[in-house]
Amino acid sequence: MKSVIVGIDPGQKGALAVLVDDLALDVYDLKDCIKVTGSFRSLDPVLFNALVNRAISHFEPEDIAIFCEEAQVMGGRGTKASNISMRSIYDSRGVMRSVFFPRGYQFTYIQPQSWKRYFGLLKQNKEETTKENKARSVRKACEMFPEYKDFFTKPWRGKDIPLDGRAEASLIAFYGTLILKGEICNGKKKNTCR
After folding, report:
1. N or C: which end of the chain has fewer CB within 10 A?
2. Nearest by Cα to 45 from 85, 102, 107
3. 4-192 adopts what CATH topology?
4. Are the CB atoms for 46 and 55 separated by under 8 Å?
């Protein structure tokens, strides 16, 4: 089995989490790699490549499996903001692919519904806000990785600010380990697969 599992929450506040041998966790914010590209912001290839070098290049490519949340992008005509967001997402995907594929890393997109369903993080009802849902992701990551709970919050003016991108990247990495172990297939626990 692969010993280095990378989980990526690809959003502007996203992160890249590296889980080594199911035990050691390290997390890198993507915000340091995002630059203005024309009329939108996306991953800068040079900065992202440098982050990948720092995070995982010291491992053998055959030991690395990367799992990235496949951001949901609505087609059709949207608002100017949603069109800019779509361009940003697709541009960032292209940057990731251009960095990972030439190195021979196994790269897999994961639907957000799959990993969130597994961890019980799908929206509970229509009233639950995105902020509340992201806070649940942080709590779940703290529960799954208690020795690394300081990764998922930062102190600010006397309170802890949740860092949901880091939390979700870490959960995606853990979910990736379950896929590689064969404990999950098609987004379901193995015993429920048909």
Report:
1. C
2. 102
3. Nucleotidyltransferase; domain 5 (3.30.420)
4. no
